[in-house]
Amino acid sequence: MEASLVKTTAPVYLAPTVDKASCLKAIWNWRFQTVIFRTAQLLCFSALIFELIEQKEVAAWTYNYSTKAYSWNYSRMFCQKHYTDLVAIQNKKEIAYLNDVMPYFNSYYWIGIRRINDKWTWVGTKKVLTKEAENWADNEPNNKKNNQDCVEIYIKSVSAPGKWNDEPCWKKKRALCYTASCQDMSCSKQGECIETIGNYTCSCFPGFYGPECEYVQECGEFGLPQHVLMNCSHPLGNFSFNSECSFHCAEGYELNGPSKLKCLASGMWTNNPPQCIAAQCPPLKTPERGSMTCLPSPEAPQYQSSCHFACEEGFALVGPEVVQCTASGVWTASPPGCEVVRCPLLEAPGKGTMDCVHPLTAFAYGSSCKFECEPGYQVRGRATLRCIGSGQWTTPLPACEAIACEPLESPVHGSTDCSPLSGPLPYNTSCSFRCADGFRLKGADMAQCTDLGRWTAPAPVCEALQCQDLPAPDQAQVNCSHPFGAFRYQSTCSFSCDEGLLLVGAGELRCLGTGTWSAPPPQCQAFTCTPLLSPRNGTMTCVQPLGDSSYKSRCQFTCDEGFSLSGPEILDCAPSGHWTGPPPTCEAIKCPELFAPEQGSLACSDTRREFSVGYTCHFSCNKGFELEGSNDVECTASGKWTAPPPTCQAGVVSAPLSEVRCPALTTLEQGTVSCRHGLGTFGPNTTCYFGCHAGFTLTGGRALRCRPSGQWTAGAPTCRAVKCSELHGTEPGTMNCSNPWGNFSYGSTCSFHCPEGQLLNGSARTACQENGQWSTPMPTCQAGPLTIQEALTYFGGAVASTIGLVTCGTLLALLRKRFRQKDDGESPLNPQSHLGTYGVFTNAAFDPSP
């Protein structure tokens, strides 16, 4: 009997170790047996059912073992007859698996290892056992009595589970067999099939790859060089392993490289493909006095190369013009040569002589002959002839004729006087030249006919006299006409000035026949206006691009604090030479006249009672009366008092003075408050004084007093931003303003822009300052390019504007801080002071209570 072990994903079952027939017989005799035998019969029946279930689970590579013990040789025959062979263990994992699933047997199991030629060898594969694959038990193999040549495996041994031991081959043990997974067609017959647990792997032969070695290694096609011919065989597929390709060349070319390539198992060809090199012809020499042009190269002529020959000028080709390299490496003809070209023979003319030079040979290319005539004769034609490359002389043979000079033409705007006056002009004839008025002679004033038939000088020309160049004056235009050249005789130039400028001098100049102008160049002068003076109690700021009080000058007027401008704020000097209006004046600002209240008195700092800006007045009441309103008022720059006149009311006391309190005062926006307390904090006779920050003025009384009635003498004053004069846009430009404290008030900034094509004359930005004055005058827009003076003015304005912006930025930062404090809400005055009940509070007393 035998049993099987199955390595699958399903559970592994162990087959029974008893005979099936015995079990069936035991079941048949069931009724006739004792209880003990019936129990044995039940076990046989269970084993039989177990085997049937096991057979259904077998679906992969199996381990098999015999139920009986045999010698090693008989065990192998048993495995080879019923299965494949004694098991060949691949790795330690397989050993652990067998030790886990195989049943224990006291004499253990034979495996497929045996000593052959004194080396332990796997009998199935004939491979020697490697050191890495050994799994011997301790002190094994020991080869006791020198006859232990076979190997057993300890299955479920307590001391050495799964280990090996060498034993005599005649001992009887169970055979441990395996059924091979490899088949005839495994690995596509292109690799070695290697068994694994439950499967097999393929070790592909060189040139094959893939899980079943089903793919052939490809080397890939290669591009053939020019003129190479190829013939290939592909036993395993195009350009794949074992493909062979042979090469040869087209006519006229020779193979350079291997004549045959083979695709290797590595996917590489045995070499790079060869090239075909054209057959070479011997190099040719360039003919003397000639040139040679070869394609593609004269250094290494090859099959189908051609060489073209040409001779230098004056030489002719003797031989073929073109030769070609043949497939056999021989030229189609010998190279040609170059011979000099010859011209017809010459003879001396009558009344003359001939002198020739022959650098190569007589009357050949490069020969030159010079001809001369006897005295009184001259050469008609070329005096020197040259033999050129065409085999001809440069001109016909000259002749000798009597000497005469060519007639001379009279110069334009001039005349010629010759002797004799008409007919041929023989040797020694002289001619004189002169020019008309306004022109001068350029060249010789006389010429004479020489014995060579030439004039001693060429005919002169008459050119117009030159006047000095006239540049255009500043702020002017010039328009000229030049009939005989720029700024020459009879040139005329007219002048005109820009708007607002007066032409001083002649309006038109003419270049005279003497080479001078009819008058000096004129000048353009700006119209001037009457000089202006700063108004009394005021200032004047002027921009004067063309000079003091001249056309385009602009002056802006402002008044000192306490004075108002009477008249235009800006005056411009017009093209007529007059200002656009009369000069303004600064008039003192006055407030309405004040009178003492009934039951009271009035005392003013202005004893003359003119009530001008800055003057203050103090009100007081008679005994028994209380002041209702502000006790101090001041005349402001707006012409109004800081508070209305107070009145005197009869006093009423309804509570003890020590208990009377006036309402707590809040902090003053953009200002400061300091209090001097009388009878307790904010009690009767407490006086609080108010002031404003720079750039702000106080509206209302500078001081409030707490009355015995518990009321302040007037309402709390406020701080208003200082006003600057109102600005108007610069026509035709635009003006953009930002006003954080009201239109044209302290902190306001205005920027100015001119339309395209016009330039801004002045600063592009101005800011309202704490003194009620703008940081820079309002600019204007003007056309045309900037003069140096204007550029400097604008640069100064830009610097002043930058300083103003920095100042404004600093002030705005302070204002923003004040606003942030204000946003926390109004805070009543802290009545608690570290100075005690009676004393003076500064700004620290107005901080919000913690």
Could you explain how this protein is built, in words?
It contains five helices and 59 strands. A hairpin with a 2-residue loop joins β4 (109-116) and β5. The strands form 21 sheets. Strands 1, 2, 3, 4, 5, 6, 7, 8 and 9 form a nine-stranded mixed β-sheet that branches. The protein has a four-stranded antiparallel β-sheet with strand order 52-50-49-59, with no helix packed on it. The chain has a three-stranded antiparallel β-sheet with strand order 14-15-17, with no helix packed on it. It is flat, with a radius of gyration of 66 Å. By secondary structure, the chain is mainly β. Among the domains are: 2-201, Mannose-Binding Protein A, Chain A (Roll); 217-278, Complement Module, domain 1 (Ribbon), CATH 2.10.70; 290-340, Complement Module, domain 1; 352-402, Complement Module, domain 1 (Ribbon); 414-464, Ribbon (Complement Module, domain 1), CATH 2.10.70; 476-514, no CATH class.
